[in-house]
Amino acid sequence: MRRRPGRGGVTAVLARRAGWSTADQVISSLSNFALSLLVARQVSVREFGAFALAFAMYGYLVMVSRLLVSQPLLVRFSSVEGAEFTRAARQSTGAAVAFALAPAACMLLAGAVVGGTVGPTLVATAVALPGLLLQDAWRMVFFADGRPRVAAANDAAWGVVQLALVLAVSAAGPGSAVDYLLAWGLAGWVAAVLGVAQAGIVPAPRAAWRWLVAHWDLSRYFVSELVAINGATQLMLVLVAAVGGLAVAGALRGAQVLTGPVQVLMLSGTAFAVPELARRPWIVGRRLLRAGVGISAAVVAPAAAWGAVLLLLPDGLGRQLLGDTWAAVDPILVPTVAGMVLGVAGLGAACGIYAAKRPRVLFWLQLAAAPAYLVGGVTGVLVGGAFGAAVGIALTHTFAAAVSWIRFVVVARLVAETHRPADDATAGGHGPPAAS
Question: pTM here?
Answer without folding.
Answer: 0.70
